[in-house]
Design a protein that fits this description.
The complex is a heterodimer.
Chain A lengths: L4 E9 L5 E10 L4 E5 L6 H8 L7 E6 L2 E3 L4 H6 L2 E4 L11 H6 L11 H14 L15 H14 L4 E5 L7 H16 L3 E6 L2 H7 L2 E6 L2 E7 L5 H9 L17 E11 L5 E11 L2 E6 L6 H8 L7 E6 L2 E2 L5 H8 E4 L3 H5 L6 H6 L15 H14 L16 H13 L5 E5 L7 H16 L3 E5 L3 H7 L2 E6 L2 E7 L7 H8 L11
Parallel strand pairs in A: 3-8, 3-9, 6-7, 7-8, 13-18, 13-19, 16-17, 17-18
Antiparallel strand pairs in A: 1-2, 1-4, 4-5, 9-10, 11-12, 11-14, 14-15, 19-20
Helix pairs in contact in A: 8-17, 14-15
Chain B lengths: L7 H26 L7 H19 L2 H25 L4 H24 L27 H5 L4 H19 L1 H11 L1 H6 L4 H27 L11 H12 L3 H24 L4 H34 L1
The chains are: A alpha/beta, B mainly alpha.
Chain lengths: ~500, ~300
């Protein structure tokens, strides 16, 4: 049978040269539930956005029912019968379910037909066995109901291929169960569903076939019945590029950063950290692994004083800094490379030079707080050379540099600040291979100089090749602390802990 | 001392002084619903007030004056729209620019045409008539209050009703509200976001135009420099109370009309300091705003608590 949707050699390169998808091939049969799994940054979202006309295609072809299509906007995709439910719902909060349902649907009548719209909505809901309250305003609906409304909305617009982007991420287990029931019914009605997730249990439960994405490439398509969760996890996290560094054997002598029993709840009252404790010593790299959203970024934010812990303590070199300000912590000797370099890492429109001194500008100022720009220039030229930052001049706005060079400039700033504790959050995400190995060598150099480094990364290979110890986080808790010095931890083993399949008893770090 | 509260004349002038603010508030309402903030309402009103007077003076036709005033209102709103929607200029700065251009520009044109920096009384311009409503005018008290108002006053009431009906009972209104609240969602539902915003701007322009023309061709029969005197800005406060709902906007404008009129009467009948009295309407509105905001946050808190 001819596949309903087929993708051939699809490649996407973003402006700035980030390769998000490389030569992707996969096909979806009519009437199946096809899961698309992969780590964060594996290129799932990019692929889906291209299929839904939200991103342009760099090269390659998309076929719907054997016919080649090019989408200029979502409208074209909808016209081909493709509908997408986004992670963030596209609903207008103050309007009712029925009004959202009918929004933008071309009608002949100028006036709204409230009763008719409600009736139509209820009919469609009944037809697909979706329970929604058509008269209720969206802002008063539960997340589950909003999602059902979104699915109905795209069905009403004639979608035959449904793309669901991590639909269960926001649902309770009960709501998830119900969603799966409905999805199976839709499948029986002949709908084709593409289901994006990194929750393997759910993928195993609902899908017919699985396509694995890994680093922007397809890692193959499998029949769900033929593979186990462990196999999927291995295929998901296994890497092609490998780093092998010659690491000095060093013996830590003192403790630099200690975190005790940290709890943090976000604004939605979701427990993001549930009692995290560990110690970071000098001359060591402590890696933190975990599937995105399991508390790693919250942990970093609490340590770097961006968020306040609900309970627990943070000690920096023996001093309680739980409630210290960011400035105080930096003065105490902590440097931080944030995950989002354009948002938190640098001031994009300002020059390379200015960005390189922003966190320690005081050391270039005299008593009257006037900055000595000759010294600043010397310093930044030195850093540009030492860290091999490719820029036309130190006066160039930093945003005009490539991602890798921006990151090198930020690394240069933080590493030259003279701190002994370095917090690195995804230091090499979206950076080219050359810059990665350069930054890695600098990290190892800092370790050799006696600094303590906390390294959070989604790249398991990076963690394994750099870390002395690796903590694994799952659902806001540390589920394992693995020693990586004598023998390298395997990716498969890390994967099992990260996905919560395995847990270490009595973890102490 | 407050006997005047019982006189029909008092209430009739409350309705009269409500009219320009009511129209301006309606303009602000529709902007809020479309997700825009038009700081230039004041200036738009001023431009239309002058435009209407001049056109009617030169053509001798009230209809032409009103038509040109209206088109000017739409034009000025579209200029704002062009800058903020097509050129991505900051909304507030553009609004301020329109106000400044209007303040200086109207005086400039006034001097060029009438030779006076202050008013256009040298021109014979037409004005909107007062309308006596048959039957209603014969009812005592009520007739004195409601009948005999200016044509634009009645028009403004019709506008409120139409605007409310349009926003909540037509597809156009639904689309405008969707665009104003969640642009992304509206776009993904296939609504032409830009078109909706320009329609809202056009309506805003029409309301501003009648608000301005009421001042120069209704309550007064000539244009004076700076005659809008803050009513456009006040409408933004009224809209903040109404949060885009024309009916509440109407009620809050009435509140302004009331406090504005009471000021006039207090000046006549009380011993209070004049400066203090002229601050009264603004203080009054400030207090009302504070009370409303207080009640709102209370309700909000209760809602949150009940959810937990």
């Amino acid at each position: 049978m001819e596949p309903i949707l087929e993708v051939r050699n699809l490649t996407k390169i973003y402006e700035g040269g980030v390769l998000a998808n490389h030569q992707i091939n996969f096909s979806v049969e009519e009437g199946e539930i096809h899961a698309l799994v992969g780590e964060n940054g594996a290129g799932k979202s990019t692929l889906m956005k291209m299929l839904y006309g939200m991103e342009s295609v760099t090269s390659g072809q998309i076929f719907v029912r054997g016919k080649e299509v090019t989408f200029h906007s979502s409208k074209d995709a909808i016209a081909e019968g493709i509908g997408m439910v986004h992670q963030h719902f596209m609903l207008v909060d103050s309007l009712t379910g029925a009004e959202n349902m009918m929004l933008g649907v071309e009608g002949t009548c100028f006036f709204t037909d409230r009763k008719g719209d409600i009736k139509k909505t209820q009919e469609i809901a009944a037809q697909y066995n979706f329970e929604i309250d058509a008269e209720r305003r969206v802002r008063d609906m539960s997340v589950g109901m909003k999602q059902k409304l979104e699915i109905l909305k795209i069905l009403y617009r004639g979608a035959k291929i449904l793309i669901l982007d991590e639909p269960t991420a926001v649902l309770t287990p009960q709501e998830t169960e119900e969603l799966f029931e409905r999805l199976k019914e839709l499948k029986e009605k002949g709908m084709t569903i593409i289901f994006i997730s990194h929750k393997l249990k759910e993928v195993k439960q609902i899908s017919d076939r699985i396509t694995i994405l890994k680093g922007g490439r397809t890692g193959g398509t499998y029949r769900t019945a033929d593979v186990t969760e462990e196999e999927i996890s291995r295929l998901m996290v296994g890497r092609v590029i490998s780093f092998d560094y010659d690491k000095q054997k060093l013996k830590p002598e003192k403790e630099l950063l200690r975190v005790e029993d940290l709890y943090y709840k976000d604004k939605f009252q979701v427990m993001k950290l549930g009692g995290v404790s560990f110690t970071l010593r000098d001359k060591e790299i402590l890696g933190v692994a975990g599937v995105d959203g399991n508390g790693q970024s919250e942990l970093i934010s609490v340590i770097t004083a961006e968020f306040r812990a609900n309970r627990g303590k943070v000690y920096l070199k023996g001093k309680d800094v739980t409630n210290a300000s960011i400035g105080e912590i930096r003065a105490e000797g902590l440097s931080y490379i944030p995950e989002d370099r354009m948002l938190n890492g640098c001031a994009a429109p300002m020059s390379v030079e200015e960005n390189m001194i922003v966190s320690n500008i005081d050391s270039f100022a005299n008593k009257a707080k006037m900055v000595n720009f000759r010294k600043v220039k010397e310093h930044s030229l030195h850093l540009i050379q030492e860290f091999n930052v490719k820029t036309a001049s130190e006066k160039q706005p930093i945003k005009s540099l490539s991602g890798g060079n921006i990151q090198k400039a930020i690394v240069a700033r933080e590493f030259s600040a003279g701190s002994d504790v370095l917090i690195l959050d995804q230091p090499t995400r979206g950076v080219d291979v050359g810059a990665i190995s350069f930054i890695h060598s600098k990290i190892l150099e800092m370790r050799g100089e006696g600094n303590g480094i906390l390294l959070v990364s989604a790249d398991l290979n990076e963690l394994i090749s750099l870390s002395d110890r690796i903590l694994v986080m799952h659902k806001g808790k540390i589920v394992a602390c693995l020693d990586n010095t004598k023998e390298k931890v395997s990716e498969e083993e890390l994967g099992l802990y990260m996905l919560g399949i395995k847990t270490q008893e009595g973890v102490s770090a | 001392m407050l006997q005047f509260l019982m006189s029909p004349n008092f209430w009739a002038s409350v309705l009269a002084s409500t009219t320009p603010v009511l129209l301006a508030t309606l303009a602000a309402n529709i902007m809020t619903k479309a997700g825009l903030f038009n700081l230039g309402i004041e200036g738009t009103m001023l431009i239309c007030a002058l435009g209407g007077v001049l056109t009617s003076a030169f053509t001798g036709s009230l209809l032409m004056g009103a038509l040109v005033g209206m088109l000017l209102g739409i034009f000025v709103s579209f200029v704002l729209g062009y800058f903020i929607l097509m050129m991505n200029a900051p909304m507030n700065a553009c609004g301020v620019a329109i106000n400044l251009a209007a303040t200086g520009g109207t005086v400039f044109i006034l001097v060029m045409i009438c030779g006076s920096k202050n008013n256009s009384s040298s021109l014979v311009s037409s004005f909107f008539p007062s309308v006596n409503i048959p039957l209603l005018q014969n009812i005592p008290v009520l007739g004195q209050i409601l009948s005999g108002q200016n044509f634009v006053t009645y028009l403004s009431w019709i506008f409120v009703a139409l605007c409310y009906y349009m926003l909540y009972h037509t597809k156009l209104g639904l689309n405008i509200r969707a665009v104003g609240e969640n642009e992304e969602a509206a776009r993904s539902a296939g609504i032409n976001v830009l078109a909706m915003k320009f329609i809202a701007l056009a309506l805003c322009g029409v309301f501003c135009a009648f608000g301005g023309m009421y001042l120069s061709m209704g309550s007064m029969h000539f244009f004076t420099a700076g005659m809008v005197s803050g009513r456009g800005f006040l409408s933004l406060a009224m809209d903040a109370i109404a949060q885009g709902n024309p009916l509440i906007g109407c009620a809050s404008s009435f509140l302004y009309g009331f406090s504005d009129t009471i000021t006039v009467y207090l000046q006549l009948y009380s011993q209070l300091d004049l400066q203090l009295i002229s601050a009264f309407p603004y203080l009054f509105i400030l207090v009302v705003l504070i009370i409303i905001q207080f009640v709102r946050s209370r309700i909000e808190k209760k809602k949150q608590q009940s959810q937990i």
